[in-house]
Design brief:
The chain is α/β, with parallel strands linked by helices. The chain has three domains: 2-200, TIM Barrel (Alpha-Beta Barrel); 222-311 and 453-476, Rossmann fold; 327-445, Rossmann fold (3-Layer(aba) Sandwich). Helices cover 34% and strands 20% of the residues. It has 15 helices and 20 strands. The protein has helices at 14-22, 41-47, 69-81, 119-128, 143-154, 170-179, 202-208, 228-243, 258-268, 313-325, 343-354, 366-376, 432-439, 447-463, 469-476; strands spanning 2-6, 27-31, 52-55, 86-90, 104-110, 133-139, 161-166, 185-188, 219-224, 248-253, 272-275, 289-290, 299-303, 306-310, 335-339, 358-362, 379-380, 393-396, 420-423, 443-445. β3, α3 and β4 form a beta-alpha-beta unit. α5 packs parallel to α6 (170-179), α8 crosses α15 and α10 crosses α14.
């Protein structure tokens, strides 16, 4: 089931929120702690044609209740008399509010600071407090934190357990909970109505991550990196898998400890990861081999000999740049300056050098750029000299490279006619460098075309099939 949380502050607008939520939900959570003036709860419950769970959380539990504790207890007692399907009671007050009528009790324990390590003990306390359902909420910034919450939800117990992850991996937990049999998962009705940071919206779950298609038979492909590329990747690939009727869907992953990641991937039977090119983490410890000399990888797959990383990114770059320049040898023997010092910049330097380009590096930090130049045995261009240095192409390979005339920014006057410009600062989107390149007559390598080429290469590598064009139409239509 999916439980949609509504957090109205207005008694006038609350019925509309409940109606909209009921169209998508199996269960609707009405959060009383956001109301400016409390409504007639019984009337609101009658308006909703789906079961209603009523909650009123304190601020220390992530809620918005500003009144006294005595007032909150009285409100919850009166709420139960109104006859909702469920009422959420935090463990501290559960014994102060008796069971009444047919309303089921969701006894909750929230930790806003760290994951719990005494789940069994707290579950036993909730059981003794006459819970019908037990709920755990804690931070899930990465897979390491989400994993024990998933274990708490899926372990066989006397009572059903639901969970809510806070933070970057809250969506990851929700999708895993769907696959492994959580009684329900939480979603916000829309952006701005989340009960906790990282709570997915119902639109994300349904339209982007195909929540309704996920079952115990679903295989996941991990998508690492929470950037702009991830959202489009997920939409396009999920549309492709759906079009081909394959029980495969994308799962966003924020890795923690790499040793634990490998074990978790084995348990979840995930044998492929797509990695955002701008992801600044290090997955090399996961791999038994890397096919690229630079160590850069955007596709990691498990085979008989273990995990191996490879890059489709630079093949996509080559294909699109060759088409833009009208030559397969667009880089050979040419002077190219790479701006940036991160993993993507270093991988770009290695790739260009291996294809006989005359590569230089520059960055706002001359010391960092000098270290890269020494390591790669290439030329370093001081930041103060980039505009007086002749170059035939530039690669903007870092989100920290900004277009402008201010301190630490790259003045677009550097761009000249027929110069090749490869802009990866907001990949797969465009930055201000795009308009400047086109206005100055440069050969601009479109990052969105490059991204489409990369997705096709990745899909082919994963399935040995061509990407259905309708997947791009459906996936990109959401942008």
């Amino acid at each position: 089931m999916i439980c949609i949380s509504v957090t109205p502050s207005s008694r006038t607008l609350a019925p509309a929120d409940l109606l909209n939520a009921s169209r998508k939900a199996d269960l609707v959570e009405l959060c009383l702690d956001h109301f400016i003036k409390l409504p007639d709860i019984a009337d609101l419950i009658k308006l909703c044609d789906k079961p209603v769970l009523v909650s009123c959380r304190r601020r220390k539990d992530g809620g918005n209740w500003a009144g006294s504790e005595e007032e909150r207890l009285a409100l919850l007692r009166n709420t139960i008399v109104a006859g909702p399907a469920y009422v959420e009671l935090d463990l501290e007050i559960a014994n102060k509010i008796p069971r009444f009528g047919e309303t089921k009790r969701v006894i909750s324990h929230t930790s806003l600071n760290r994951p719990l390590n005494n789940v069994d003990e707290i579950f036993e306390q909730c059981y003794k407090a006459k819970a019908d359902v037990v709920k755990f909420t804690w931070p899930t910034e990465d897979l390491d934190a989400a994993w024990p919450l998933l274990a708490a939800v899926t372990q066989s117990r006397e009572l059903p357990v639901v969970g809510q992850g806070i933070g970057a991996s809250g969506l990851t937990f929700s999708l895993l909970g769907r696959k492994y049999g959580s009684p329900w998962i939480y979603a916000a009705l829309e952006k701005g109505m989340e009960t906790h940071e990282g709570q997915p919206t119902v639109w994300q779950l349904e339209d982007q991550y195909c929540w309704g298609d996920i079952s115990k038979k679903t295989r996941f492909i991990g998508v690492v990196g929470m950037g702009a590329a991830e959202n489009t990747t997920v939409r396009v690939l999920n549309a492709a898998f759906k079009e081909l009727d394959k029980p495969i869907r994308c799962l966003p992953l924020m890795p923690g400890n790499i040793t634990r990641l490998k074990k978790a991937l084995g348990i979840m039977k995930i044998n492929a990861l797509l990695v955002d090119p701008l992801y600044d983490g290090n997955l090399s410890e996961l791999c038994d081999g890397v096919t690229e000399g630079s160590g850069f990888m955007d596709l990691v797959t498990e085979g008989k000999s273990g995990w191996k990383g490879r890059s489709t990114f630079f093949q996509a770059l080559h294909n699109v740049a060759s088409a833009a320049k009208g030559s397969e040898s667009w880089m050979q023997g040419r002077a190219v300056t790479v701006f940036g010092t991160g993993p993507l910049a270093m991988a770009t330097i290695a790739y260009l050098s291996s294809h006989n380009a005359a590569v230089s590096v520059a960055a706002t930090s001359d010391n960092a750029a000098m270290a890269i130049a020494k390591q790669a045995n290439i030329r370093h261009i001081p930041w103060s000299a980039v505009h007086s240095t002749t170059t035939e192409g530039i690669v903007l390979a870092g989100a920290d490279i900004q277009c402008g005339v201010g301190r630490g920014q790259l003045n677009p006057s550097l761009i000249r006619e027929r110069m090749m410009v490869i802009d990866l600062t907001k990949y797969p989107g465009e930055s201000a460098f795009a308009e400047e390149s086109q206005a100055r007559g440069a050969v601009y390598v479109n990052p969105s075309r490059m991204f489409a080429e990369q997705l096709q290469l990745q899909f082919k590598a994963l399935t040995n099939m061509d990407m259905p064009m309708v997947a791009f139409q459906k996936g990109l239509a959401e942008d």
